[in-house]
Amino acid sequence: MTKFQLSFQEALEKLKNDKNNTVAYFFQEKNNKKGVLANKFFSIKSNFATTEGVSHASSISLLNFKPSYNATVFQKLINAGAQPLVKVHNDELGLGGKGLFSAFGKIVNPLDKTKLIGGSSSGSAATINFVHFAIGSDTGDSIRRPASFIGKVGFKPSYGAVSRYGLFPYATSLDTVAWLTHNVLDSILVSQVVFGSDENDLTSVEIDVKNVEKTKPKKVAFLDLDAEIEDYVVKKLYKLRNILKSDQVEIEIIKPDLNLLKTILPVYEIISYSEATSNLSAINGITFGNTEKNLKWEEIFIRTRSDGFGLMLQKRLIWGSFFLEKDNQEHFFIKAKKMRTLIKNYYESILNKFDLVVFPAFYGIALIFKVKTVKKVIKLLILF
Predict the structure, then answer these.
(1) Total domain count for the chain?
(2) Would you say residue 382 has pLDDT above 50?
(3) Cβ partners under 8 Å of residue 317, min gap 6
(4) Labelling 110: which of 56, 182, 217, 347 has CA 20 to 30 A away?
(5) Are residues 44 and 112 in the same domain?
(6) What is the rounded distance in angstroms from the CA atom of residue 343 to the CA atom of residue 218?
(7) What's the CATH number where 224 sits?
(8) Locate the Amidase domain: which residues (predicted)?
(9) Is position 335 annotated as part of the catalytic site?
């Protein structure tokens, strides 16, 4: 792994003086295990279960939750010798793409406080300059968008490559463990440690990444999205295209089916909100959540999900409940799952012809934080 500019103690001191509202907990236990990640330290999102520290997923509803086990990915990193440094804040329960929806306040972009950090793995992105790697989760673009906003490598593995055991579920069919690193080689090393099947996650599979070799791609496709993205991003893609051409890589420009492309967001929202409604139903003040004494069970339910959940989360769960209503399932949820299959088949047909398909993680650079922006986001959540 790349030699890091900060020592553990220096990184610790800098994070203790953190002004970006990122740190939820400082790990106290020293990891003395030896392995390929010995003396490497990392941050981890607060929606992962760990026996030490907080695991509240930046939600008031889980403020006092103490897991009795470690998430598989966390335990694998410990076994490889890595030292956890901090648990970090995120958009509440992993829902949100801005870094604005933690119950503990806005998570600040460390490179430019006027810009959004992205989310939901906001704290992971905001701490990457103080650690060797940062663990988060990615359901829609929760690692990739923040990584693009701060100029780091963000990697979302294929579904099932890494066990989700101990990652609090948002949308079960979409959730993945993901991470940020300083370069691609470091991301490969993390992959070699955490990839693999796990009896606690039946969707996980064994993928051999032990012997990764540097190989030049022969055929690379670029999706022609120039009319949909900002000029700055277009120029960067042109530059990459020219570099590959000069290295004798065959390039093909593909005009994607924009009508199909524009269905991705509503399909994602319908499926993810619906699955979140089911997955988070256990946070009710009785099964999970902060239970108040001397209240009827109906009152406990209402208080937990009214006082314990933020506005953004409440709205998404209301929509999820609507999509799952018996009379609405066929029109929304089932149709969205059928559309997901069409989208998957379309992109697989492209991937099967090329070694790589290149397109931007986001249409532009980090968005400017404005009160109007927040109001617009809330308005869009209400409308959809």
Answers:
(1) 2
(2) no
(3) 273, 276, 277, 280, 305, 309
(4) 56
(5) yes
(6) 25
(7) 3.90.1300.10
(8) 29-363
(9) no
Q: Where on the phi/psi map is residue 21: left (φ > 0), alpha (ψ -120 to 50), or beta? A: left
Please state, rounded to an integer, the average pLDDT across all residues of the chain: 93
Note if 337 is an active site residue: no
The amino acid sitting at 173 is: S
**Do 89 and 57 contact (CB within 8 A), yes or no?**
no
* Predicted confidence band of residue 384 (pLDDT cuts 50, 70, 90): very low
Known active-site residue 120: yes
Residues 269, 237 contacting (CB under 8 angstroms):
no
- pLDDT given at position 292: 75
pLDDT at 372 over 60: no
- How far apart CA 32 and CA 178 sit, in angstroms, is 25
| Per annotation, catalytic residue among 59, 61, 124, 142 | 142
Residues 81-100, mean pLDDT to the nearest whole number: 96
Q: Which of 120, 124, 137, 148 is catalytic?
A: 120
Q: Decide if 125 contacts 82 (C-beta within 8 A).
A: no
Phi and psi (nearest 5°) for 153? -85, 120
SS3 111: coil
Which structural domain range is residue 299 located in?
217-383
Which one is catalytic: 45, 98, 106, 156? 45
Task: State phi, psi for 271 to the nearest 5 degrees.
Answer: -70, -45
CA separation for the pair 279, 144 (Å, rounded): 23
